[in-house]
Specification:
This protein has 228 residues and is an alpha/beta fold. It has 9 helices and 8 strands. The protein has one domain: P-loop containing nucleotide triphosphate hydrolases (Rossmann fold).
């Protein structure tokens, strides 16, 4: 794992990590890991199997044998599959995000999913998107990004995404949900949400996607992670 170049992109919910990571991986022609999708799939799977989200003992075998798969689609994106079920849109619903946040606080579950995430590091390189990629999963990554934005801006972005997909949404409720998620994610005892000590912190509140991607590419260039 240590010989494979990795760029980690961590940050709070709806900070644009997924969009930025996907665009960056496309430009670099690297692999992509959406770690949040794994936790969302596990939360959904546990619900489907009737397993309580606070039952660490029952969740452990589900995590160890999680039938998740990431498949490239014709549009150049990645579809997420749970067994034979395509769940790319389902796992992006707010209620599934809440399921993910609940299972993610369990130490044994996080440990079970750790090696699976590390196995995504393959040549020529990996862009890893999540909340503890730089602090726990890939602590030796040569470039660590912590991407953030104001709660109001993140809620606005999420509101727009949900509307575009035809999901009902309330902006004020989203702001409160995001603040609650931030508090829970930052306050958990295991792998709390925080920048790695050597992370580059980028506040994207007033930045567009292209500007953020170009900023990260500049840092990648300075570290020799891509041809200049």
């Amino acid at each position: 794992m240590s010989t494979i170049p990795v760029i980690t992109i961590d940050g709070p919910v709806s900070s644009g990590k997924g969009t930025i990571a996907s665009a960056l991986a496309t430009q670099l022609h690297w692999h992509l890991l959406d770690s949040g999708a794994i936790y969302r799939v596990l939360g959904l799977y546990a619900q489907q199997q009737g397993v309580a989200l606070d039952d660490a003992e029952a969740l452990l075998p589900l995590a160890e044998n999680l039938p998740v798969e990431f498949k490239q689609n014709a549009q150049g994106g990645v579809d997420v599959w749970l067994a034979e079920q395509e769940v790319s849109n389902t796992i992006r619903e707010e209620k599934v995000g809440e399921l993910a946040s609940q299972v993610a606080v369990l130490p044994t579950v996080r440990q079970a999913l750790l090696k699976r995430q590390q196995d995504f590091a393959q040549t020529p390189g990996l862009v890893a998107d999540g909340r503890d990629m730089g602090t726990v999963v890939f602590p030796q990554a040569p470039l660590k990004i912590f991407l953030t934005a104001s709660a109001e801006e993140r809620a606005r972005r999420r509101f727009q995404q949900l509307q575009e997909k035809g999901f009902p949404a309330n902006l004020e409720a989203l702001i409160e949900e995001i603040r609650a998620r931030d508090e829970r994610d930052m306050g958990r005892s295991v792998a709390p949400l925080k920048p790695a000590e050597d992370a580059v912190v980028i506040d994207s509140t007033e930045m567009g996607i292209e500007e953020v991607v170009n900023t990260i590419l500049e840092h990648a260039n300075s570290r020799g992670l891509r041809p200049a």
